[in-house]
Amino acid sequence: MDLTCRPRRLRSNGILRKMVREVRVDKSSLIYPMFVREGNHIKEEIPSMPGQYRYSVDCMEEKLVELRDAGVRSVMLFGIPDSKDEVGSGAYAQDGVVQQAFRKAKQVCPDLYLIGDVCMCEYTSHGHCGVLCGREVDNDRTLELLAKTALSQVQAGADMVAPSDMMDGRVAAIRRLLDESGYKNVPLMSYAVKFASSFYGPFRDAAGSAPAFGDRKSYQMDYHNRREAWKEAMLDVQEGADIVMVKPAMAYGDLIREVKERVNVPVAAYSVSGEYAMVKAAAQAGSIEEEAIMCEMAVSAYRAGCDIYITYFAKELAKCMDAGMIG
């Protein structure tokens, strides 16, 4: 046949396919989410997330070294306290579990880049992401506590803070307090586009953060909406966010792309606990090849436009990059 254009020419061998690859990924873009709980000598598997654990502060080092040696240099810490109260005071306590974890991590692996998840849900007795007024979250009263939480994490050793609460104005409140306290150079990664998603179920099991009543739909976003995603992302950039995040990742590639095209800051995507758990369950049932699916999911997020990928598969993806399976 007389064909001038033959796209298959550029697929003829592995060297050429990699040469013309449109999306390239690197270990430096991976962030691993890690759960740290109070107590001693604890490494307990999370039932809904096989292969993922809650660590006490004294048991963190082995995992941190394992990540570092695999080439994963960024870790996001989530704290799980033993006691909770109405105002989530453990979130901003100087001796809180996550503050202890930052100090320990800086001591044992000073070359890791540490990110603090800033929210109240793990620390409040009611499981909501802020202070309550009746049965509603009081947005403006919550801002001061979120800012205090971010500051306490930075003082304990966090290199970056990432507010995940979805309160209006929290980026500005955190940025203002950090700047006033002498931390002008600490970056802020905002969970800007965070949907009220059923993909979060295993995380709530892992962190013990399910709401005691109601849901989070009055502050997390309705997954039917596109334009609202742009609005949230652009507002956070205006308030001082250095990076914006879309969460979840797998079912929201369209919004990763649209946010990427509208903001002038890096875009992160969080491959959440439900995505991880589904892959694990399907692999255990023999329905899929775990490693191949894991790589394909990651590339889909990068292809959509993310610059940073937050994933429980960070170590495994790093090894696949080393092996040339993804990159």
Question: What order do the helices and strands come in, and which of them pair?
Answer:
Elements: H1 14-19, E1 30-37, E2 43-46, E3 49-56, H2 60-70, E4 74-80, H3 97-108, E5 113-118, E6 132-133, E7 136-137, H4 139-156, E8 160-163, H5 170-180, E9 189-194, H6 201-207, H7 227-239, E10 243-247, H8 253-262, E11 267-271, H9 273-284, H10 290-304, E12 308-311, H11 314-322
Helix pairs in contact: 2-3, 3-4, 4-5, 7-8, 8-10
The helix content, as a percent range, equals: 25-40%
Q: What is the β-strand count?
A: 12
Largest sheet: 10 strands, mixed
The arrangement of helices and strands along the chain is: HEEEHEHEEEHEHEHHEHEHHEH
Helical segment tally? 11
Distance, first to last CA:
35 Å
The stretches of 5 or more residues where confidence is low (pLDDT under 50) are: none
**Structural classification:** alpha/beta
Strand-residue fraction? Answer: 15-25%
Estimated radius of gyration: 20 Å
* Overall average pLDDT: 94
Q: Given the C-alpha coordinates, what overall shape results?
A: globular
